[in-house]
Structures are given as structure tokens and as C-alpha cells.
Amino acid sequence: MSMLQNTDPLTGTRRLFYAVTPNETSFATVDEVPDYIIEAFPYFMGAMLLELIVSVIEGKQEERYSLADTIGSISAGAFMIAVSAMVRGFEVVAYAAINKHYSFVTLPWDSPWTWILAFLGLDFMYYWFHRLAHEVNMLWAFHQVHHSSEEYNLSTALRQSVFQRYTSWVFYTVLALALPASAIYVHVQFNTLYQFWIHTRIIKSLGPLEYIMNTPSHHRVHHGRNRYCIDKNYAGTLIIWDRLFGTFEAEQEEEVVYGLVHPIQTFDPIQTQLCHMQWMWQQFWLQQGIFNKLCVIFKGPGWEPGKPRLGNIEDIPDIKYPMPKYRTQIAGWCQVYVTIHFALNIMVMDMYGSKYDMHTALGAMIGISFLIYSFTCVGALCDVKSYAPVLELIRCVMVLSMDAYITRSMPDYAAVYYYHLILLRAAFGLSTLIWIPQVLINGKKKVE
């Protein structure tokens, strides 16, 4: 599906704030439910641009934004979408099957009360999923991706795990005993969309709404690595769950420092997704006895033998703002290059997604694998890795080869995307000429 949908600006904006009615968002079947998150993509980009403009006006753009980090966050979101396309719908099908065979009551899909119960039920179960995603190491291994940015801006909301959706749906299946799959699929998406706009430092307080709703202020605490921020404010839409279950913490005067307790210091999307799983696997084999090994998986990420289930808060570094961030020195021309090619990656992804149903299983896997490789190349350039020129030269040659194949073997497809392919041909042809001397120079330096 294309990310550039025809949604009018007012409707697209309302959806980001959950400002929708039961009548316009109730459907008889899951197949009728729109892909609201994909349709919101242009509004994500527009909101991020607006946030950046406001930050520039306030003179705080360097404090709030980093090109490499922003690209890393959007890449993680695109990475998740690309991988999910190979197994899309799995969780919805599983929920629908439980609802069909094991539900004890059938609530009407078109009733406003069903819509309201789905909203409350989904938000309640999201709270418990989110809380356990911080308190169970195996789940944290997936969720930590979202917290890995040392920045806190709207792009951070897009930094998502590839694997998390295959665990979160398990928490929602209890709702299948009464609530139709279409209603839950609607609210899963709107719960996610609502959480996009609260990832900002621009909005300070929303007054009385702070008592009921999850807000930028509450969520800033959740993303902090100051001691007072750890394991607080798990809400999706309603902050009342945190207030009821003792996990609420108001934002203090002390400036929040964002990111992981132990920063990952990379923009590599694969490393971002897998780093904690790798660490957990190492800890699993280091522990003595099967009980301790299981504790590594099912207790908190701060657990060690002899410590409480979630570890000791005293083990968290007592940091104060400002803290140094992972910032690489990217040459000016390379920043321009990375920005252009990242935009081209998104364009290619949209082209591919719009014709996804036309591809064979093998073709889909090859295309998605290439997109993953492309975002990995961008990460290597942002990390200023020595091998980045080689990876990028290979990618450029691959694109030119695929262009030649498509033009020759898929004339109808090439005709539809004629101007897109001309743009790609020119951009990647010029890029190939840029990287060939870079690779030769680096190779000569190694020999010397």
C-alpha cells in the first residue's frame, strides 16, 4: 500500500489526536478497516517539519534535533513496516479466530458502546503490555528500540521495534472474548497514532487534561533516564491507569535526559533492533543454573543474582542534564547525500508498497531485503564507518542493475513509474561516480 493516501488534511490531523467518532470508525469486518497508520505518514512528515521550524525559531534546533538520529528513527519505522509486510495480518487473524470460536458474547460492531468499550479495553491492556515490556527482559529486548534515541522529538515516535507487534497482540487476545476484531484493529491504530504527537518538547503542559490524558509532559518522563523517570508513565492514551496502579510520576524541574541507561551509540538499524537480544543471550550463558538463566529472560533488565526482580534503583547512574550525546562528525557533502538518498529510499519503499500485491513471495522478499540493506547503508554512513563507501557503492550498482532489469522485463511497471526511474537512474548513476574514487582511495590507504 502506498504511504501517500488521499486523506483530507482535517481528517488526517484529527486522527493524530484520536478526534474521531464511532460512526466514522466502526466496521463490520477487519478487511474494511483502513490502514490508518500508513495513511498518516504524510502528516507525520508535516508535523515533524513544523516542529523543526518552531525549534529553529526558538533557537533550539541543535538541542532537539540531530540529522543522523532523525534518519535513524524514521529508518527504524520504515524497517518495521518493510519486515511486517512479509507477515502482515498475523496478529489480526489470530485475534479474529479467538473471537469467532471462543467469545462468550457477541457485541454489535456498529454500537457506540462497543466502540467505547474497545477504546477502554485496548488502552487498559496496552498499559499492562507496556509495563511488562519494561519489566520483563525478553519483552524489553524488543521495546528498547523505541527508547534508544537520545533525542526526544516527533521522529522518536517512529523508532519502533520489528518484533514488538508479535508480542503485544497476545495481551489484546483477552478482549476477543467479547469485542469484535474490527473494533480492536481500529483502536490499536488510533492508540498508536495518539502517541505520535506526545513525543515533543515544544508543548509544556495541557492544564487540566494532564490529570486524565497521556501528554507530552508525562511521556517525557517515560523516555527519561534520570532516576526519577525509570519505569514510570506507561499510559497509551489515558494516564489514569498509571495513577491507579502506582506508576505515575509528574515531570519535575530537573531537565530530563533521554535515551537508554546504557546508550547504544550507533545509527545501524539492525544493531538497534538486535543489540539487547545479543546482550541477553550472552548473560543467559554466563549465569549458573537453570533458575538464574530463566531469570535473565523473565525478570527485569536490571536484575542480577541476589537483587530484586527489577534490580536496584541505586544501580541506575545518577545523571544530570546535560549529558554528552552520540554525535558523529559527518562531512557537509555527506549530510546532503544521506538526506537525498534517505528520501529516495522512502520513495522506493512507497513505489514498492503501492504494487506489493503484484509481487511474488520471492520478489517481495528480495525487495524488502533490499530496502533493509539500503537503510543499513544509510546507518553506516551516519556512523562514519570505514566500510560505508563499499556498502554504498554496492547498493548503487544494485539499483542501476535492477533499473535495467525492470526496464527490459517489466515494461508496464516501468511505464507507470517512468519519471521515478529516470530520477533514480540519474541519482544512482552520479552516486556511483562519487563512491568509486572513495573506495579506491580507502583501499589504497589500507594497502599502504
Please trace the helix and strand order, writing H or E for each element.
HHHHHHHHHHHHHHHHHHH
Shape: globular
Count of β-strands: 0
How many separate helices?
19
What oligomeric state do these chains adopt? single chain
Instruction: Give unreliable regions as ranges.
Output: none
Please give the alpha-carbon distance between the first and last residues.
50 Å
Descriptive overview:
By secondary structure, this protein is an all-alpha fold. It has helices at residues 9-16, 36-39, 41-57, 61-64, 67-84, 90-102, 112-135, 137-147, 165-172, 181-197, 216-222, 240-245, 269-286, 290-298, 332-354, 361-382, 388-409, 411-416, 418-447. It starts with 8 loop residues before the first helix and ends with a helix. The relative contact order is 0.11.
Describe how the helices and strands are arranged.
Elements: H1 9-16, H2 36-39, H3 41-57, H4 61-64, H5 67-84, H6 90-102, H7 112-135, H8 137-147, H9 165-172, H10 181-197, H11 216-222, H12 240-245, H13 269-286, H14 290-298, H15 332-354, H16 361-382, H17 388-409, H18 411-416, H19 418-447
Helix pairs in contact: 5-15, 5-16, 6-9, 7-8, 7-10, 8-13, 13-14, 15-16, 16-17, 17-19
